[in-house]
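Complex 600.
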Amino acid sequence: MGAEERSVDPAIKGLLKVSQSYETVWDRLDSQTPHCKFGLQGVCCRNCIMGPCRISQKTKFGVCGANEDTIVARNVVRAIAAGVAAHSDHARAVAILLAEIASGENQDYRIADPEKLKAVAGRLGLETQKELLVLAKEVAGVAMEDFGRQAEEALKFLKSYVPPQRLKRWQELEKNLYKQTAKKMGILPRNIDREIAESLHRTTMGVDHDPLSLLLQGVRTSLADGWGGSLMATELQDIIFGTPRVRAISTNLGVLSADKVNIVIHGHEPILSEKIVEMASHPEMERLAHEVGAEGINVVGICCTGNEILMRQGVPVAGNELHQEMAILTGAVEAMVVDVQCIYPALGKLAKCFHTKFISTSDRAKFPESLHIQFEEKNADEVARKIIETAIKAFPLRNKNQVNIPNHTSEAIVGFSNEALIDLLGGSLTPLIEAMISGDIKGVVGIVGCNNPKVKHDYHHTTLTQELIKRDILVIGTGCWAIAAAKAGLMRLQTQEISGPGLKKVCKALKIPPVIHMGSCVDCSRMLNLAGALAGYLKSDISDLPLVGSAPEWTTEKAMAIGTYFIASGIPVHLWPIPPVTGSQTVVKMLTEDINQSTK
Ligand code: CUV
Ligand code: SF4
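Predicted structure with Fe(4)-Ni(1)-S(4) cluster, oxidized bound:
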C-alpha cells in the first residue's frame, strides 16, 4: 500500500513518504493480509480446550456441538463485554476519585463545576441543598452502587437519565419475550460489573447457546455502558474538571513545536492528562525547559485523552488513532505519555529509534519497551512533575536532522457539551426542534469511532460527513471521527457554505459549524442524552426521531459496545468494516432486522 492509499491527511502522506524506513501499522497490516477468513466471519471459537474449533461447509459443529449461530453470537457478546469493561473501568476510576475528593483523602484534585454537580445530583433524585462535598460523596456513592448492587433492579444512572418511553419500551420487551418464548431474557442492566461478568459466564463452554438469548445479554451489557459507565464517566468528569464550553483549537501534527519540549498525551482518561496540562504551565517547569534551551513546554493530545483536554482546556490535538506512530516519526516528540486503551504496543520499539521517551503510567497498562512512571491519583501533582521533567531532560537529545514536523494545522470550533449547546440555542432545545420540524434540518447523524488501517485513513469519516451536511443533515460526533473532521477543517464556520440550504440557514443564525464536536468516546453518552432530551421535549421516544449513528472506520471492541447501545436506544447504526458476524445468517438477520424492529 503506497502513502497515497493510506490516508487522506496531507500531514501523514508527507511523513510516510520520507520515513519509509520505519515500520508502521500499515506495513504490519500488509503482512497480516489476507486475514484468516474464519476470524473475519466470526466462526472460530477458542472458549475451551477441546478446541480451537472453526465452522466451515465441512465441519458444521465445534467439538462440543456448538454451531455457527452460537459461536458467532458468543463472540459478539464477548467483544461487547470487553468494550463495556474498558469504558466502565474508566468510569470507576472517576467515581473513586470523586469519592476521595469528597472525603478529603485526595487534595490534588478539586471540584471544578459545582453547578454540574448539583445538576447531576438533581437528576439522580438527590436533595441538592447540601454542602458541596457532602453532595459529591452522595453522587459518587450512587455511581459506585451501580457497580455493586445485587438486586434485580436497573441501574440508577440509567433510570435517572433515559426517557420514560424508552424505559417502558425495554420493560415491555422483557415481558413480551418471556411470554412469547417462555424463557426469561433480561434487557435492563442491573449492575455494570455484573453484566460484564454474566456475559463472560454465559459465553464460557457449555452455558448459553441460544443466539437470541446471547445477543440480548450483549444488548443489556451495552446499555450498562451507554446509560451507565460512559455516561457516568462524562458526568463525573465534568464535575471534577469542568463542563466543556465552546472554543477554537488547532489540530494536526503541525501543532508540534520546533522549539519547545513536546509532550504528547495519548490514551483515554483525563485524570492524568489534566494534571500534565496543569503542571506544564507551572513557572518552575517553564524555567527548567528554558534551562535546556527550549522555548517552553508544548502539550498536545492524541485520541480520546486528547479529546478530553481539547474539550475542557482547549489543548491542541495532534491527531487521531493513526497519528500515534506518525507523531513519533516527526522526531520532535520528547515524551509520548500514555494511560489506557488504543495505544499500539509498537510505540515502544519506534520510540527507541528517536530520542522520544515512551512513558506508560497506568497500573492497568504496561508495555514491553516503555519507561513506566507509575501514576497515583493521590500523588498526581508529583507524578505529573516527574513526567514533565523526564520530557525536558530528553529535549537536548533531539536530533535536529531527524526532525520533520509537517506544516499542517487546521482550526476547529469544539466544546459542544449539551450544556454549551443549549446555552447557544438560547436556553432550550426549541430552536433545534423547530428547525427539525420545519425541515431545515432533515435529521441528525452521530458519527463516532476509531480509525482502521483497513480503511483509507479518515476517508469515510470526512466524505460521509460532507455528504450528510450537503443534504441538510446535522452531523455530531466524538472520538477519532471528531479529530478527523477537525483536521479536515469541517468544524469551522466556513463549512456552513458547503451545507445544504436549510442547515446553512440554521447554522448561520446560531453561529455554529454544521459539524459538531461532542467529545471523547465516553462522551457518546452526551449524544444519547441529547437524543433523550429531544425525545423528552416532544414527549416521544428516541426511535421516533430522525437520528442515525455511524462508525465508518471502527476498530475497537468499545465501538461494538457503542453501536449496540445506540441501536438498543432506538437509533439505527451503520458500521464499517463489517463486524465479524457474517458466518451466521441467523445472527446477521437478528442484528440487521430483528433488533432494529424490536427496539423501535
Ligand atoms: Ni476512545 S476507541 S481509536 S481513542 S475512537 Fe479513537 Fe477514541 Fe476508537 Fe480509540
Ligand atoms: Fe470448540 Fe465448543 Fe470448545 Fe468452542 S466451546 S472451542 S466450539 S468445543
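The two ends are 42 Å apart (CA to CA).
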